[in-house]
Structures are given as structure tokens and as C-alpha cells.
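Hey, resending since the last one bounced:
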Amino acid sequence: MQRRFGEIVGRVALALAVFGAGPALADAPADEMGALFRQILADPTDTDANLAYARAAERRGEKRKALATYERVLLNDPGNREARDGLSRIRRAIEPSWTNVTVSTGVGYNSNPLQRSDTATRPDSVFGLIDARFRDERPLGWWRWRSEFAAGGVLYDRTSSMNTGYVLGSVGPLIPVAGRFAARPIAIAGYRWLDGTDLYGEIGGGVELEGRFQGAVQALRLAAVYRDYGEDWSSDTGPVVDLEGRFSFPALLFGSDALFVRPRLRWSDVGSVPTPFLPTQFEAGRYWEIGGRIDYRVALADWATAGIGMGLYQRWFADAPTAGGSDREDTYFAPGANIAFSNLLTDSVDLQVDYVYQMQTSNDAAREFDAHLVMGRLVGRF
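The C-alpha cells again:
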């Protein structure tokens, strides 16, 4: 009975596909797809014939025919792995193009922007910030291409030596691999200035692997850049290699919460530079680092979301802070909390307030510090 029902539904779906496909399919030319089509017409529940037809349609670039065929297979064989993977792959390929622009601007207070260990000689400062991010994805040629760019800066009122700005970006195609996964080879470039002079430029590449699990996109990224410091900074040029993960777990405890985990393994070989610890959480030097961030957010109402989080990073340097001493080791710890009010002014503008406590311990006394940061930002989405 179940098989008979599947045959009836399959024939109806197939007839609709023929009606909408135009002469090319309805005429059933004597080629590979035509022969496979006749097999399917004789038995719409024939999984092998349907899968062969879907593969042929993909090879010819006829993605919608392949999509309908994979759906027909799953109607009769819900557990078929090839059909599930093919459906995921085709859906990704035919997604419409989209562009997101996010701009955030605000003010904040930092109790120790120079990150000094001596509490008697460290000034506090108010600062202003702006950050603009552009993200675009669209089909080009065989694949979809994703482009990501960011630019912004931070200006301090009492510690202008910490004034900084940045421009960075990455671009690359999303190449389907193993069904629900996509690999994205990327080209990376970036530039940062500090205190009115060139701090560094960087260029490199990498690869991202992403897939959708548990209702969210999960990703792993391996990237390497060559970083070149400006003439005003006494630092070597050299490579930085990062292995980073981006994992999300929505509805962890109940329907309106989510957990975000971002682990990172880093190797840096760019030498040392006499600058404070930058807001990018990059420390110049020759070292290994392991750590990451974990954040938990929960919707309090349709218009309010609260969160807590923590960053924790451990670094092992190749150089000793004092002659004959042991190699330098740092531990950076940054817990915090935030609250966001959605659609505060319009449907696309949010207000977000953040608090972060930074603390770094080290066997180099000059690199120990703590600081309190409070920020208020308006975030607009376009």
C-alpha cells in the first residue's frame, strides 16, 4: 500500500515537472537524460534511475531539475544519503544573492587603555568607536562567492597614542564538498594604523569548511598571513597562522537561548613590537597560543537580549623577558556581559551595552595588567 501511494505521488510530481520543464524535457530526446527519464516514467520509485537522472541534470547545469529529482527520491526513500546531500548542495547553489551591511558606532570608557601594570601611572580614557562591515554572497560561474570587508577605528581622548584604525577583507568561492559541507578558499588582506603611523599590513590566504548542523552554521577556518610592520615600529616581519572554529548551539536550554563557542590555535613569528595589547587581541611576538571565547545569550523579550561571555588565551613565547630567565608566558582572561535592545529607533537599529573586565598575568611583570571597559553602541543593519 505504501509503495503504491508513493508511485501515485511520484507520477503526479513527475507530470507537473514535465509540464513546467518545456519542450526540452517533454520531448524526451534520445540522450542520457531522455533514457533515464523514460525509466523514471515507468517507475517513479526507482531510486537508482532517479539518482542517475539527478546527477546528469547537475552535470548539465540544470539545477532545478536535479532539485526536484532529489526531492522525489526522498519522498520514497527518506533515509537516502546521496539524495539528502544532493538536496543540500543544490539548495545552496540556487539561493538568491544577498548583501548585508552593518554599522556600529558609540562611546566607551577604558580604565587602563595603555595596559600598564603600575596602577599609579596608568591614565584612564573615554573613547569613541566606529565599525562598518560588508558581507555579500552571490553566484558567479560554477559556485557562489562570498566577500567580507570591515573598516573602522577607535579614538581616545587622553591616550591618543592608542588611536587606531583598520581595513581588512576576504573573498572566496563556496565549493560544495561531501553534501552538506562547503569549502571556501579565501584570499585575505588587511591594514592597521596606530598613533597616526602605519602599524602593519598583511596578506595571505586560507580555507574555511562550513556546514549546517543543529539549526546553525558551524565553521572551521585555517588562515595564514604574512605581516609587515611599518618603519616606525621595531618589529620583524613574519607569518601568523590561525586555526579557528565558529560553533553555535541554538535552543540549548530552551527555545530563546543560544551558546556560541570560538576556539583558536595561533602560531606567530613576527617578532616583538613595543605597543600595548591591541583591541584585536593580537600580541606581537614569537609564540604559540591556545584559547578562545564562549558566549551565552538569551532573549528576555522580543526587544531585549542579554548575554554573558568569557575570553581565555594562554601564550608560550620563544623569548625570555630577562636575560637568563625562563621563556615568557601570558594568560589573558576577559569575562563580560552585555544587553541589547532591538529596533530601538527603527526596525534596523539596535542599542547594545557591553562590559568587559580584562586581566593578564605573566612572568614578565611589565606585561601584567587589568582594565575595565564599558561601551555603548548603536548598531544599524542595512
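Helices lie at 2-21, 23-26, 32-42, 47-59, 63-76, 81-93.

Sorry for the duplicate.
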